[in-house]
Batch of 2 targets.
Target 1
Amino acid sequence: MTNTVKVGFIGLGNMGIPMACQLLKAGYPVLVYNRNKNKEETVVAAGADKTSSTADVMKRSDVVIIMVTDDAAIIEIFTGEQGLLTPAVTDRYIINMSTVSPEVSRKMAALCESAGNHYVDAPVSGSVKQAQDGQLVIMVGAEADVFDAVKPILGAMGKLVLRVGPTGAGNTVKLAINTLLAIQAQGLAETINFANQQGIKTEDLLILINNSAIGTVFGKIKGEAIMQDNFNAAFTLKNITKDLRLAKDLGLNSPLANTANNSFQQAEATYGNEDIIAIIKALKHDQQ
C-alpha cells in the first residue's frame, strides 16, 4: 500500500494521538474519530479530518486503525450502533492495535471475514515517547497476505513490525511481554524499597544499577520517575492490571507472574490511575 491509502484512526488517547500524527507525517490522509472530541483537535491541527461516527470512518477509509483500552470497547466499536460493521462495505483492512484478549480478536476477525473485510491484531510495545518518535515495536497476528498489505502503514509508526502468527497471536505475545513488564516494575520497586530500608539512597542505587549488566531502558525511565516523585501515567497501573488478568485467563500460572498479578490487583483501587511504577508506593505501604 502507498500513502495514497486513506487511513481511519479510532481512539485518540495518550498513544493514539502521536500514532495518528506519525501517519500524517508519512503522508497518509487520516480521518479520526474519538468519543472525547477535545482529543481530536491535536490531530486535526496536524492535518487530519474528523467525523461523527465509527461507521463513517469505515465508509471513508481503506484501512481503519483502532487504539482503545479493552475488550468491551472493541466489541462496541465493531458491533454497536453506528459500529464499524454496520455499513455494507467490503475489502477494508481493520487493524486493532489495542491490548485485548486473543479471544476477542478471533471473534472480531470472524465477523470481519463474514462481511468481506480483513482483520489484523497489532498491539504495540513502547510508551508515549516511542509513539511520538515512531519507534514502537509492533507484533502482528494475521494471515501472511493481509500482513503484507498493511505492513507499510504499521511501519510508519514503528521501528520493528513482526508477524508472529495468525489472528490472536499478536495479542498473545503482547500479554507475554506485559507480564514481563509487570515483573520488572515490581522487581525495581522491591529493590529500591529494600535498599532504602538499609539506608541506601535511591540515587546511588540507580547509578549503580544503570551502569551494570542489569541496567535497562525501562529501569532508567522509571527510576528517574521515582526520583522525581512523578507518577503521572505514561502507562497506567490499572491497564497493566487488566493485562495481567487477560494473561491469567489464557492460563498464565507461574511464581513471578502470580506474585505480580496479586500485587497489582491489590494496588489498583488506590493507584490505578497513576503510572505502572506507582506499584512502589503500594509495596512500601504494605511494608509499613
Target 2
Amino acid sequence: MSFATSIYAQTGDNSFFDESGEVSEEIATNLPTSGPKEGLEPIELLNPRADDVYWQKVVYRTIDLREKMNYPLYYPEESSDNRQSLFTLMFRLVQEGKIKVYEYLDSREIFNDDHLVSFKDLLEKYEIISKVQRDSITNDSVYVVDESDVPNRDVIKYYVKEVWYFDKITSTFQVKIIAFCPIMVKETDLGVQKFPLFWIPFDKLRPFLSQTEVLITDKNNGTRPSFDDLFIKRRFSSYIYKESNIQNRNLLEYYSDEADIKREQEKVKTMLINFENDLWEY
C-alpha cells in the first residue's frame, strides 16, 4: 500500500472527511483554530470602582456593515454553516424572550421596564412577516418568523454607545461598549429612510455573543472566533457621530458640511488618543 493510500484509508470519528469524501461539518466548525463555543463564558472584564475613574467620556459610533472589515457582522444573510449574522442572533434572542431590548430615543438611552420593546411591537411597527401560533401548554400567542423573513438584509448599520475612561488604580485607559442599536434602512414613499430599531445592552448580550462563532477571513475557514472576541478586541470599523456634550447634540446638528463633520470626527478621535499619550508624557 502506498503512503498516500494509507493516509486516506484512515477512518474514525475524528476524521476530517466523511464517508462521502465531504468535509465533515461537525469537524470543520470545531478545528483547533476555532474550537466549540457551546458553554463558553464571556471574557471577564474588570469593573472599576466609581471613585477610581479619574476621567471618562461617552462616545457614540456608527458601524457601517457595507465596509469590508464589518462583513463578519452582516454575513451570512441567512443562517448557515453553524453561523448567523449579528442581527439574526439579536432578533432570535428577542423572539425567544432571552433578552430585553429598549426603545430608541433621540436624546437619551433609558434601560428600564417603561421603555421595553416587545417582540410583538417590533413585528407590527416594522411590518415583519410572521405567523401566530398557540402555545400548547400556556395557550399564549407565539410569533413565528421564517428564516427568510428575518430583516437581516435591511439592517446595514449599528449605533454603538461606549465609554472611554481612565482607571487611576491600574493606571490604564480603557473603553467599554455599553449598548448596540441596529438600524434598518428601507425604501418608503418619502425615499430611503433609516429606522433605529432598539437599544440592546452589551453586557446582557455578551453571554450569547461568546457562544456564537464568526468567520473573519476567507483565507482560513477554520479560524472562527466568537462575536465577543471580535468586539472585545475591537475588530470592527466605525466612525464617531456624537460625543457627550452639554447640549446633547450629535455632529450632524452642529455641522451640515461633510468636510466639517469629518474634521470634527477626527478631532474627537485625536482627543482620545492624545489623552492616553499625555498620561505618560512626564
